[in-house]
Structure formats: C-alpha cells, structure tokens
Design brief:
heterodimer; A: 182 residues; mainly alpha; 2 domains; 7 helices; B: mainly alpha; 6 helices; flat
C-alpha cells in the first residue's frame, strides 16, 4: 500500500466528502473508490475502518475519516481528515441557515436536490455490495448470507442499529473462524 | 443560553447517537422542549438544510447551533459534531491490535456484513423519498 502525502490525502478526502447529498455512506463509497484506485487503501483495511466507524458514536463518515487519517498520518492525518470532511459542509449549512428556508422551498431547487439524492442512494447500495462482495464470493458464503439476512430481519423488526451490530459482533466472534485464519 | 451549555447539550446528543440523524430526538428534547432555545420549525429547517448540503447529514447540528446562538453557536455545533469522531482512533488501535485473532476477525466481518445489510433499506428509502419529491415537483 502506498502512503499519500498529507496534502494529497486531504485534497482527495475534501473532494470525496463534499460532493454527495444524502449522507456519509455515499461519501465513504467515493473515498473507497478513490483510495483503492490510487493504491492508498485495500479492501480489508476499508472493511476494518467501516466496522470501527459503525461502532463510534456520532457521525459515521467523520469517524471513518478520523480513523483513515490516523492510519495514514497519525494525529495530523486525523485532524486534516476531520477538518476537510466537515468544515465545508458546516460553512455552507451555516450560510444557508442565515438566508435559506425560502430557497430550499423552490420547486426547481428541490428537484435538483432530489436528483442528487437519487445518485447518493445508488452510491449507498453500491457501498453495501462492495462490503459484502468479498464474503459472498469467499469460502463462507452461507455464513455471510445468514448474517446479512439476520441483521436485515433484526433491523426491520425495529431493533436499533447499534444493538444489531453488537449482536453481530458477538455471534460473529462465537461462530467458527474462517478458513485460513491463523 | 451559554455557549458551554449549548456545547454540552449538542455533545450529549451526538455522543449518544450512532448515525447522523440519530441525535435528533435528544436535540429536540433539550433545545426545543427543555430550554426553548429553538422552535420546532427552526429545528425542521436545520434538518432540511442538513440534508440539502454536501457532506454528512449530521451537519444539521451546526445549523441548529447557529439558529440557537448565531455564529458562535455554529462553531460550537461544529465542535460538538466532530468531537465523537475522535473516539474512532483508540477504537481502531484496539481492534487493530487484536485483528489477527480469528475470532476478532470473524466478529469484525460480521459487523461489516450486518452494517451493509442495514444500508440496503436506508438506500432504498432515500431513493423512494427522492422519487416522490421529483414526482411532486413534476406533478405541479
């Protein structure tokens, strides 16, 4: 894995974190694609960062950025990653707060936002597939599908995401280890 | 409302939630119901704005801070938004240290798969909302 410079990492995160609407998972998917394409991140590390971010309180994408930045450049990396991922949106939302409500209510503006949200939804579904793909095509296909279906069923029945994740971690750790694991 | 109190209330909401919008009930309880620093309408505007700008949906906390206390409130909101993310660093170190253990890897795999499974309904819901919104605009 190559190690990008702090500025290259920050610039890439700034671009990926601030060009999607509809939530952090779409941004995370863009980051995964950019970083993997450049050889800055691999699939197992991405999966680890996603797992950590899901267990971190608050906004998942900021936790992902903090962990990614730490992995690459320690404290400076984490600070830069959190800053570039959150400051542009914070500045824009504050400026909008001062003037907006009326602007967002305009039909054409809403249509634009809706179209951008559709793209974000596609990215989220793509992200879900990217995360389960190595398991679905791996040696533990049945195990992975069982976990995915159980998690979806628990979530659909109204159990909070953090409880679903804790149960998954517990049952995952108790299940037979995967082949080839030492 | 003092900025320290505002930070404490927003941080309480962000640190006890596990998704961008998960902090909303606590923020409403504290800022709208208990301290009357915001109206329900203002909070709705903050949420709408949070979903309308690039970046994390949780950024609505910054808008809520601004509407409660102006520019200093926006800064406080941003600090409350990013503070919990720092917890990812010790968590990463902890998981990274034990990740070579088969049972830890298995647990992490299960969390990744469960997280991905829960993304599907969220993505579909987002797509449905967007299509409804487009339909409403086109139908006018």
């Amino acid at each position: 894995m190559e190690r990008p410079s702090l500025s290259a990492m920050g610039w890439q995160l700034a671009k990926d974190a601030n060009r999607t609407l509809g939530g952090g998972m779409a941004s995370i998917e863009l980051m995964r694609r950019s970083f993997e394409r450049r050889g800055w991140l691999d699939e197992p590390r991405h999966a680890l960062l996603v797992a950590v971010s899901r267990f971190t309180p608050g906004t998942n994408v900021l936790a992902y950025c903090a962990a990614l930045g730490w992995l690459v450049h320690r404290a400076a990396g984490a600070a830069v990653a959190i800053g570039v991922a959150s400051i542009p949106g914070a500045v824009i939302v504050t400026a909008f707060s001062a003037v907006v409500a009326q602007l967002v209510a305009r039909p054409m503006v809403r249509a634009g936002f809706a179209a951008a949200t559709l793209v974000a939804a596609a990215l989220i579904l793509s992200s879900a597939w990217a995360l389960v793909r190595p398991h679905v095509f791996g040696s533990r296909r049945v195990w992975a599908l069982a976990f995915a279906m159980a998690a979806a069923a628990l979530f659909a029945s109204g159990i909070t995401p953090i409880r679903v994740l804790l149960l998954s971690a517990l049952f995952g750790a108790l299940s037979p280890p995967r082949e080839g694991a030492s | 409302m003092s900025l320290w109190l505002l930070y404490g209330l927003l941080l309480k909401a962000t640190v006890t939630s596990f998704s961008g919008m998960g902090s909303l009930p606590q923020i409403r309880q504290d800022l709208v119901v208990t301290h009357a620093a915001l109206s329900d309408e203002q909070l709705s505007h903050a949420v709408l704005l949070g979903r309308s700008v690039p970046g994390p949906v949780g950024v609505y906390v910054v808008s809520a801070g601004y509407l409660a206390a102006g520019w200093p409130g926006a800064v406080v909101g941003w600090v409350a938004l990013v503070t919990p993310a720092l917890a990812a660093i010790p968590l990463l170190a902890l998981v990274g240290r034990w990740h070579h253990l088969p049972r830890v890897r298995s647990g992490v795999d299960a969390v990744v798969i469960a997280g991905a499974a829960m993304l599907v309904p969220a993505g579909l819901q987002l797509a449905r909302d967007a299509l409804l919104q487009l339909g409403a605009v086109i139908g006018r």
